Amino acid sequence: MSKYSEKFEKMRIAGKLASQTLDMLTNEVKEGVTTNKIDKLGYEFIRDNGGHSAPLYYRGFKKSLCTSLNHVVCHGTPSDRVLNDGDSVNIDVTAVVNEYYGDTSRMFTVGDIPVKAKNLIETTYESMMKGIEILKPGIKLGDIGHEIQSFVEARGFSVVRDFCGHGISNTFHEQPNILHYGKKNTGYELIPGMTFTIEPMINVGKLDVKVLNDGWTAVTKDKSLSAQFEHTIGITEDSYEIFTESVKGYTRPPYN
Ligand code: MF3
Ligand code: CO
Ligand code: CO
């Protein structure tokens, strides 16, 4: 048994609950539903399955998950806003079970979305997976950023710099920061037992972001569409483990 096997076992449990919450919400994301309804369903599902939602009361956040629509980059707050045909929305769930955290987000689409939005969502998902697939002890943090940035920019989209992935275990956000841009062979070396998120935010237009007066909602300055996916991951002896993989095989839309 390795030193970190107990930690990984707890990360698996928390990660699974977070991903099952997104699985459960998949059928609920449709025209006419408010983001508050999604928040309530997520809150109840996590509570009824032995966990609690990390975002609720986190640094003054008032809801149980984040719903970031269209040009919202991240940290959108659920509200009375109704989902409409053509919307794309990121739902970001963080579940805590036995003090350990599982943090994951996916994009969801409502009705028919523009081709540009489809391309953005596909590119964002692929970029996250490119960042994940190279993971093993000995590579450096900058290698992850390089994989994501080079892939995204080759497709003409931009990588948000103002938010990043993070270490995660028995605290929500810990060291190190995981940048989604960077240079090969720079930054800390990965070692077995490390646990962190990869959660690239990718824009159709420029990378610039501003935070609205509510102190949370981050939007693209040029109002262009933004997308994000997130997994919580652990580094193993020779590879990696994704703690937040969908039990139902839901990776990216369309999910049917
Ligand atoms: N889940 C987000 C992350 O990926 C953090 C949300 S903090 C909140 O790190 F307060 F906005 F919920
Ligand atoms: Co995160
Ligand atoms: Co998150």
Overview of the structural elements:
It is a single chain. The chain is 27% helix and 25% strand. The protein is of the alpha+beta class and 256 residues long. The chain has a single domain, classed as Alpha-Beta Complex (Creatine Amidinohydrolase), CATH 3.90.230. Residues 92, 94, 103, 105, 199, 230 line the site of one cobalt (II) ion (CO).
Task: Jot down its keywords.
4-stranded antiparallel beta sheet, binds cobalt (II) ion, alpha+beta, 3-stranded antiparallel beta sheet, 25% strand, binds 2-amino-4-trifluoromethylsulfanyl-butyric acid, 15 strands, 256 residues, Creatine Amidinohydrolase
- CATH class identity: Alpha Beta
- Ligand identities: 2-amino-4-trifluoromethylsulfanyl-butyric acid, cobalt (II) ion
Tell me the CATH architecture. Answer: Alpha-Beta Complex
Radius of gyration: 17 Å
Please give the share of residues in helix. Answer: 25-40%
Order of helices and strands: HHEEEEEHHEEEEEEEEEE
- The CA-CA distance between the termini, in Å, is 39 Å
Mean pLDDT: 98
Number of domains: 1
What is the overall shape? globular
CATH topology: Creatine Amidinohydrolase
Give a quick account of the main beta sheet: strands, pairing sense, barrel closure.
Answer: 4 strands, antiparallel
